[in-house]
TrEMBL record:
<dbReference type="InterPro" id="IPR000834">
    <property type="entry name" value="Peptidase_M14"/>
</dbReference>
<dbReference type="GO" id="GO:0008270">
    <property type="term" value="F:zinc ion binding"/>
</dbReference>
<feature type="domain" description="Peptidase M14">
    <location>
        <begin position="118"/>
        <end position="412"/>
    </location>
</feature>
<keyword id="KW-0732">Signal</keyword>
<dbReference type="GO" id="GO:0031410">
    <property type="term" value="C:cytoplasmic vesicle"/>
</dbReference>
<dbReference type="InterPro" id="IPR057247">
    <property type="entry name" value="CARBOXYPEPT_ZN_2"/>
</dbReference>
<keyword id="KW-0968">Cytoplasmic vesicle</keyword>
<dbReference type="InterPro" id="IPR034253">
    <property type="entry name" value="CPB_M14_CPD"/>
</dbReference>
<dbReference type="Pfam" id="PF02244">
    <property type="entry name" value="Propep_M14"/>
</dbReference>
<keyword id="KW-1015">Disulfide bond</keyword>
<feature type="active site" description="Proton donor/acceptor">
    <location>
        <position position="378"/>
    </location>
</feature>
<dbReference type="GO" id="GO:0004181">
    <property type="term" value="F:metallocarboxypeptidase activity"/>
</dbReference>
<keyword id="KW-0479">Metal-binding</keyword>
<keyword id="KW-0645">Protease</keyword>
<dbReference type="Pfam" id="PF00246">
    <property type="entry name" value="Peptidase_M14"/>
</dbReference>
<comment type="similarity">
    <text>Belongs to the peptidase M14 family.</text>
</comment>
<keyword id="KW-0482">Metalloprotease</keyword>
Length: 417
């Protein structure tokens, strides 16, 4: 009997990413006031295995900012001592990463199959793309825009009522593997579209007049890796000669000030820009699709986490985009609409000044291709759970984000160009 139970437990648990390696890891939030503090953070990063959560890497840490990072169990005491000695103010956001990792799931044992209010693994999402297209043939069609480094097909869903010469909005999720709430939103969007078409007047108009291209997971290989090997993986899974380090940051891999600021040329870095722009099969496939459909694509929306921010170009320079005033007022209206449901507060503005300088991002690239409305969402939360947002928050997060997206889509429809 005991053996039987052990087997059952093992088979249920195997559906989740291994959490044991994160036993005792802590996530710190540190106030970086000045250059001296900055040196302390750099020292920590070079002496210990620090995983930066926000910003994305040590090179982006600035004075007068807040830094979130996780520390391995065996280094926690030393890190804390160093912070205290140098009088840096800090708090422990997560006291045991393993517990937090397990707590993101509503229940440890799960029924098989797709759910919009749970995190789905890639196999389940892949089957869902087929199913949602089959069940809604007049609204959803599925195509493949490329294959990943490991050979997985990249599915794109086109959502909208058939009509010639429609303008389109391109949306993608799952650039960074560990930001699980992002793919959950893309799935939710498609569900809401097919569920409310013909019932709700605004969605019906949007789908009659616009097509939405939805790429549910950009970095599929990375996403699979977060389910099977390392929940905290961020990059792609590409390998190259001359280094044993794996992966490129797909959101530093676009030809928009490529690798000039806020990105690393070190293949071992979490913000590695890759050997060349669009070196990754995933970013190349995405960019090719947008280039081939530039005449119809009027807006580009990309979904990340966490921070609760709505960002627009530029991130690779402090220069403001031409229609900065318009983008600012649209972002303002969108975050107000988002907050109306659950009171969730977002900040907004150009990426460089609102979050940090980062070159090679897809939103800047899309904007420079001529797509006037290009936005990056940083979804919930602000760091309490970080990348490990509990499943119990999927519904509320997606509902409020839908409001913002619908408002932005309606605006784009009224301002076609
Ligand atoms: Zn991201």
């Amino acid at each position: 009997m005991l053996v039987f139970l052990a087997l059952v437990t093992a088979s249920l648990a195997s559906a989740h990413p291994p959490s044991e390696p994160f036993e005792g890891h802590e996530v710190f939030r540190v106030q970086v006031e000045d250059e001296n503090h900055l040196d302390v953070i750099r020292e920590l990063a070079s002496n210990y295995q620090i995983d930066f959560w926000k910003p994305d890497s040590v090179i982006q840490v600035q004075a007068r900012s807040i830094v979130d990072f996780s520390v391995k169990a065996e280094d926690c005491v030393a890190v804390e001592d160093l912070l205290k000695q140098n009088k840096l103010q800090y708090e422990v956001l997560i006291s045991n990463l393993r517990n937090e990792m397990e707590a993101q799931f509503d229940t440890w044992s799960r029924a098989a199959g797709h759910s919009y209010t749970k995190y789905n693994d890639w196999e389940t999402i892949e089957a869902w793309t087929q199913q949602v297209a089959n069940e809604n043939p007049d609204l959803v069609s599925r195509s493949v825009i490329g294959t990943t480094f490991e050979g997985r097909p990249m599915y794109l869903l086109k959502v909208g009522k058939a009509k010639p010469n429609k303008p389109a909005i391109f949306m993608d999720c799952g650039f960074h593997a560990r930001e699980w709430i992002s793919p959950a939103f893309c799935q939710w969007f498609v569900r809401e579209a097919v569920r409310t078409y013909g019932q709700e007047i605004h969605m019906t108009e949007l789908l009659d007049e616009l097509d939405f291209y939805v790429l549910p997971v950009v970095n599929i290989d990375g996403y699979v890796y977060t389910w099977t090997k390392d929940r905290m993986w961020r990059k792609t899974r590409s390998t190259q000669a001359g280094t044993s380090c794996v992966g490129t940051d797909p959101n530093r891999n676009f030809a928009a000030g490529w690798c000039e600021v806020g990105a690393s040329t070190n293949p071992c870095s979490d913000t590695y820009c890759g050997p060349a722009p669009e070196s990754e099969k995933e970013t190349k496939a995405l960019a090719d699709f947008i280039r081939n459909n530039l005449s119809s694509i009027k807006a580009y929306l990309t979904f990340h986490s966490y921070s609760q921010m709505l960002l627009y170009p530029y991130s690779y320079t402090y220069n403001l985009p031409k229609n900065n005033v318009e983008l600012n007022s649209l972002a303002k209206a969108a975050v107000k609409e988002l907050a109306s449901l659950h009171g969730t507060k977002y900040t907004y503005g150009p990426g460089a000044s609102t979050i940090y300088l980062a070159a090679g991002g897809s939103d800047d690239w899309a904007y420079d291709q001529g797509i006037k409305y290009a936005f990056t969402f940083e979804l919930r939360d602000r760091g309490r759970h970080g990348f490990l947002l509990p499943e119990s928050q999927i519904r509320a997060t997606c509902e409020e984000t839908m409001l913002a997206v619908k408002l932005m889509a309606a605006y784009v429809l009224e301002h076609l160009y």
